[in-house]
Amino acid sequence: MSQLAHAALLASLAVAGGASAQTPPDADPYAWLEDVQGEQALDWVRARNARTEADIAATPAFQALEADIRAILDSSAKIPAVQKIGAYYYNFWKDAEHPRGLWRRTTLEEYRKPEPRWETVLDLDALNAAEGAQWVWQGADCLRPKYQRCLIALSPGGSDANVTREFDLATKQFVKDGFFRPEAKGGLAWIDEDTVYVYTDFGPGSLTSSGYPRIVKQWKRGTPLAAATVVYEGKPDDMYIAAMRDHTPGYQRDFVSRTLAFYNDELYLRNADGRLTKINAPNSAQKSVHKDWLLLELREPYTAGGKTWKPGSLIATKFNDFMAGKRDFTALFEPTDKSSLAGYTWTRDHLVLNVMEDVKNRLSVLTPGKAGWTAAPFVGAPAMGTVAVAAVDPDASNAVWLTATDFLTPTTLSLAEVGKAPEVLKSNPAFFDASRDVIEQHFATSKDGTKVPYFLVRPKDLKFDGRAPTLLYGYGGFEISMTPTYSGAVGKGWLEKGGVYVLANIRGGGEYGPRWHQAALKANRHKAYEDFAAVADDLVARRITSPAHLGAMGGSNGGLLMGNMLTQYPDKFGAIVIQVPLLDMKRYSHLLAGASWMAEYGNPDTADWEFIKTFSPYHLFDPARRYPPVLLLTSTKDDRVHPGHARKMMAKLEAAGKDAHYYENIEGGHGGAADNAQAAHMAALAYTFLWQRLAR
Known about the structure:
Blueprint: H1 3-13, H2 39-56, H3 60-74, E1 83-85, E2 88-93, E3 102-106, H4 108-111, E4 119-123, H5 124-131, E5 135-142, E6 149-156, E7 162-168, E8 173-174, E9 180-184, E10 187-192, E11 195-199, E12 215-220, E13 229-233, E14 240-246, E15 253-261, E16 264-270, E17 276-278, E18 286-290, E19 293-297, E20 302-304, E21 307-309, E22 314-318, H6 319-323, E23 330-333, E24 339-346, E25 351-357, E26 361-369, E27 372-377, E28 386-391, E29 399-405, E30 412-417, E31 423-427, E32 437-445, E33 451-459, E34 470-473, H7 488-493, E35 500-504, H8 514-518, H9 526-541, E36 550-555, H10 557-568, E37 575-579, H11 598-601, H12 609-612, H13 617-620, E38 630-635, H14 644-655, E39 660-665, H15 676-694
Parallel strand pairs: 34-35, 34-36, 36-37, 37-38, 38-39
Antiparallel strand pairs: 1-2, 2-3, 3-4, 5-6, 6-7, 7-8, 7-9, 10-11, 11-12, 12-13, 14-15, 15-16, 16-17, 18-19, 19-22, 20-21, 22-23, 24-25, 25-26, 26-27, 28-29, 29-30, 30-31, 32-33, 33-35
């Protein structure tokens, strides 16, 4: 299983899920709001939506901002990111004329042009019109080496539950009687032209307690799904079971992945006779097999070959040697107090490392040879900003895509042959006037003395009188790093008005590798919240802002963060936006996929509740306490974090007479929006709400 495939799986599951809710407890007067599609609950939603629209969205200023953000999202000048599939470069594109999007392709020669000529492969809006559906694109997996048949994932309305349909790139049509997986959590993965792995809902008992596939099967073309043969069956309390084939020419291998919890998985090599052999590496390590090599990204100390490797290290050995029992590893990266591994990508002959030093990216090139591994700088890597690198075609070339961005510099996309200067292919236009702003990095001191970095974007002529409307954003979970990126919406909605924008790199994230993440797990969750509060205090101490002018925003796990800012630190903020949040931490493990996050938060049905209740906003809420104004945003179609969290919290706030608004998008999934119009509307709600309350 490739490192990128496994990382993508974990990222897609972060605060994500799908099992239906168990019967809510009678003691909760708002339990009825957990009925996602119940008419009574939806009537409640519609009434709150209408009030929010009337109070926030009815002004000319809101309408102008919404139009500006929509124009940015729909802009034909933004970079069309591409993926090489066979001889063509494919892009999925949404704009005003194609709100659900076009899957299209071009050649590299055309792509280099300012205005490439595109060939439409699949028009999702036309498909929706023809089928009377509301499909949302969720990606395509095309079979190597012919790249003619693809497995396309489509979601009804943006939920994680989706269907998979077989598509022919030659005819640009769905294959009649081709592979089809009905709507469920899971997927299909190619074995060969006539065989796939299928992991999905096969009926009662086939899902984990988190609502993900528990069984993976092998399915032959022309046979019913019911006839597929079992490859592996996990346990009910596992998180996710899947299988995949590595199609690298000369290195075709099959793997079964058993994910027990976040950063806790087993990987098996599947032999030709169907027998499984465990890759006997630590469950906590991220395991990557590429050609001759096995790479382990460690999250705990690992003793092998007479040496103990520390967490955060990336170590390599020959895969076949490892399977034969040898343990001779080479260190490709070892962390320091200031550095961590942000990622890596294989080209045909090289491994490109992406390392973060105090949340700033640095690239290098490693090359395996007969005499071992050699290291060299990455020629032409940007010196500043957030840098990402990905192989163009690891089977055939040493080319990589290189993207660079920061808060004030529009994103650029370059094509770089390893060892040669990058060729800038595309740049985003400037969507807002950044000439008056400057970027800084500071460090706040948390309650336990830990130095917590944060990025600050402010006007160059800031008066430092404590009156600047300031927006503090954070996440702090699942080892996900928050890095500077260019956002036209933030620029138009906040910076261009003279606001200050702050991004906090609190514990729980991955900015300093596993140690930064593990420092805020379970009983130590409070450290993430103390970090965020420390950044808020530092902003006030620097006279950038004051509590009356300081707002906070975060979504998903960041929504839980915001719930704790609201209930534990209400005096530090003038307004808070809580997006697609977890809030009821007593119920979270019984709502949708909450069971899959217990490695992060703990199990509320055990003695863990003693510490979980200290960061459960729904239970910390005190109707007698003063709270800052709050806006809760969520989505009915979110089958990751149950919308009941936001609904029930709003009901409590409302019953206590607090200044609270609520908006629930009917589509959109965990991202909140299914198209650019919905995304623009929700962004404009958030920025307008915050500006109204903080710029007084």
